[in-house]
## 1
Amino acid sequence: MLLLLLVACWDPLPSGSEPNYTATTTRLHTADGATIALHHHPAAGPPVLLVHGISSNHHYFDLDSSHDLADWLAARGHDVWMLDLRGHGDALYGDRGRQFTGWTLDDYGEYDVDTAVRYIQTMTGAARVDYIGHSMGGMVGAIYAVRHGEGSLGAMVVLGSPASFSLKDPLFGLAQLGMAAGGSSLLWVETPAFAGVAADLKGAVPLHLQEKLYNPANYSPATVDAMLRQIASPLARTEMAHFGRMIRDERFESWDRSIDYRAELSRVDLPLLAIGSNHDEIVPAARVQAYADAMAGERRFFLASDGNVSNPYGHLDYALADAAPTEIFPMIEAWLGKR
């Protein structure tokens, strides 16, 4: 998640595997005037909302026919909705042009997810919506649950999502410097412009920094190329500043510091499956474990490393590894039946 500041820089023109375009797309306006996009893979069963991470978009869950959690769930009866948060993917532009900056993680949870959940409830008639979040997407789900209550949510799944910033892992200082610099001096970071370079250079990227995001043993070269070109979106200055503040304060907190989201999760009573990995160099497993430990409802933490899977999972691998459809997807689908 955090290292995307340094190496996530995708070319918007796809190469290699084509993304799956079976979903229908609806653009919606939030209560504070932003634009989001919802992508629908319809099925007759209960609805589930999939939310991407930082500097990403909905194609994290819908890369191509072999790496497609959205269609995998829809084929098993789940009514799938993928969200592009403001400024990401198909929500890069709003009514007033490019959505550059001016929002924090609070706004994602307070407005973007709330708008999506309400729309899904209206369209499906369902009282509750299941929730899957990758990295920042899981944090945004926590913010929504704390600010709006858990009444509209069913089962939750978080993939590599932190609820603690107090651990000084090796990349912590590097991420802290990047967040502080970006949050204070950059109006906007166009990450898609740099990732095409990473894809074109293949293994020649200095220090193999892009491989901090994933375990190469889990991918074919064609999948890596598609991943590097298709799943990134720009970073906003204020989004980066919010992360920088949480890192400095060592607390999963609101922008104004008035809400400790990790502490407030003790009031959220929902079944939660949290998946992390000791091989995840962006969000170490202990930070994901902290998310699970904070919740009040039924909880399960699964470690996607240490012999529990064919190859240890990196930060992007939970939905994109070649083995994810057999090792991770069935676990997610089974958990959604908990609500």
## 2
Amino acid sequence: MTVLRYLKYLFLVVVALALVLMAMANREIVTLEVIPPDLAAWFGIQYGIELPLFLVILGGVVVGVLVGFVWEWLREHRHRAEAKTQKRNAQALEREVNTLKGPARDSQDEILAIVDGPRAGR
């Protein structure tokens, strides 16, 4: 178990080192524009922000991961709803079984309790 923990830490260190190296290699400033310059001149709106390139790259990765998580969460909604329904049905059946068994039938066999059920009420 400890070997896997060390491998996980080693992997995280390698990823962190790769991210630092990528950030150091891509420090130049780039301008992000919301609308292409020709279209912005036509609308009279020109909005741009200057950021280091590594922030643009990492921001794109983070946005992509978040979109993927949301997409997967929405896709799995059907499965979560079905599991919730199945859990509710199982709880209802468990309550019904407990009601049918009853406290007086705890010592009886289940088959005998079902067979003797109508007679016990007479």
